[in-house]
């Protein structure tokens, strides 16, 4: 729901402030160029990440995750952070920062408890990554309080690559597994050295975004190598055999946007404007694409429905691909129509997530059809 609403609200506030739902006092506290990326990263993306991890850790460890009142409390912390940022009154920034931190801390500690109880050390990186995200989020609130928007830009890029690192780890597990199960072919054995190199490269990009210690030519080299290795990895997962199944090709196309983005950034390493624009290829094409594909899939599985007999989401997945190109590429090719491209991208985005809301709210507001807990 937040994905469906926030992008059109943002564009109306930016281009048509006279029709905006946000009062002018709102922007005195929360600067527009801070609110938009912060809420898309920490409000939208991390909500889906935390939901996925809290659900998956039960399968990984066979330990109970959050449910009932603790789960409601965790959701309330996330929601309070969103609402407090929207209020026009001059509330201190530490209030939404506190609720945001509680949301991430509870999730991280729950993952830690489940993983530690069964000594499943190969998954211990997930709660550590969430605690790192908590620290980065607090730093983003500090940047807002100091009106340090140069630091904010570094934080947003670092969080995008943090999410890229998470997708590298989790996507490398689930995409080939889901594909092999559906097309009934053996799952390709992972190339351990390839996977470890990709994790190190993505981690290096996170650190480079935060501290900018490497010269541009070294960063360019990291981007090129990461792009090539991701492309090699993706090509082993039978992507050409998934075209008839939207819940599969949507995952593959979303992952493909990752090496495309890395290569495009390497090509435009010296063009700051193009670099910022092209980051939206990853933000929309990969991040939002994988989020939409995964929630479409697990919403069926965790309500005991056949995953491949659910609503037809093809238009939604195509819409996000179009949104990525309209937002990131066309403004660079025809900058004189930049505002038009932004509105069209927002329209495609809103239709894509609006279709999910339309099709899946009836599914998610009913008990599982087998009577078991969700």
Search tags:
0% strand; transmembrane helix; 374 residues; mainly alpha; Short-chain dehydrogenase
Q: How does this structure look, described?
A:
The chain is 77% helix and 0% strand. The chain has a domain at 1-147. The mean pLDDT is 92. It is globular. It is mainly α and 374 residues long. It has helices at residues 2-15, 24-29, 32-61, 68-86, 94-117, 125-145, 149-183, 192-211, 216-235, 246-267, 272-301, 314-328, 330-333, 338-364. Keywords: Membrane, Transmembrane, Transmembrane helix. This is Short-chain dehydrogenase. Pfam families: NnrS.
In short:
This protein is mostly helical and 374 residues long.
Radius of gyration: 20 Å
Overall shape = globular
Largest sheet: none
The computed structural class is mainly alpha
The whole-number mean of residue pLDDT values reads 92
Tell me roughly what share of residues is in helical segments: over 70%
Oligomer: single chain
Number of helices: 14
Strand percent estimate: under 5%
What string gives the helices and strands in order? HHHHHHHHHHHHHH
Give the number of DSSP strands. 0
Low-pLDDT residue spans: none
| Distance N to C terminus | 20 Å
């Amino acid at each position: 729901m937040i994905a469906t609403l926030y992008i059109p609200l943002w564009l109306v506030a930016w281009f048509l402030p006279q029709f905006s739902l946000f009062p002018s006092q709102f922007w005195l506290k929360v600067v527009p160029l801070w609110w938009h990326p912060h809420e898309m990263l920490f409000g939208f993306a991390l909500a889906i990440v935390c939901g996925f991890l809290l659900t998956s850790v039960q399968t990984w460890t066979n330990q109970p995750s959050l449910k009932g009142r603790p789960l409601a409390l965790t959701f309330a912390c996330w929601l309070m952070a969103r609402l407090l940022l929207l209020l026009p009154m001059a509330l201190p920034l530490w209030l939404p920062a506190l609720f945001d931190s509680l949301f991430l801390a509870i999730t991280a500690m729950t993952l830690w408890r489940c993983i530690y109880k069964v000594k499943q050390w190969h998954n211990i990186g997930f709660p550590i990554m969430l605690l790192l995200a908590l620290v980065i989020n607090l730093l983003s609130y500090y940047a807002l309080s100091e009106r340090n928007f140069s630091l904010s830009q570094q934080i947003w890029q670092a969080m995008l690559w943090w999410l890229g690192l998470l997708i590298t780890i989790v996507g490398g597990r689930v995409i080939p597994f889901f594909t092999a199960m559906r097309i009934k072919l053996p799952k390709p054995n992972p190339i351990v050295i390839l996977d470890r190199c990709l994790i190190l490269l993505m981690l290096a990009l996170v650190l480079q975004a935060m501290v900018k210690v490497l010269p541009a030519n070294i960063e360019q080299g990291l981007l090129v190598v990461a792009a090539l290795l991701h492309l090699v990895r993706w090509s082993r997962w039978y992507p050409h055999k998934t075209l008839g199944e939207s819940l599969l090709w949507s995952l593959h196309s979303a992952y493909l946007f990752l090496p495309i983005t890395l290569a495009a950034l390497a090509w435009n390493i010296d063009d700051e404007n193009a670099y910022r624009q092209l980051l939206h290829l990853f933000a929309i094409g990969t991040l939002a694409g994988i989020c939409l594909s995964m929630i479409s899939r697990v919403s069926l599985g965790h309500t005991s429905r056949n995953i491949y007999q659910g609503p037809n989401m093809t238009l939604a997945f195509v819409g996000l691909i179009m949104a990525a190109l309209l937002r990131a590429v066309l403004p660079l090719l025809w900058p004189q129509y930049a505002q038009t491209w932004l509105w069209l991208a927002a329209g495609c985005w809103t239709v894509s997530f609006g279709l999910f809301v339309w099709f899946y709210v009836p599914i998610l507001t009913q008990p599982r059809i087998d009577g078991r807990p969700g």
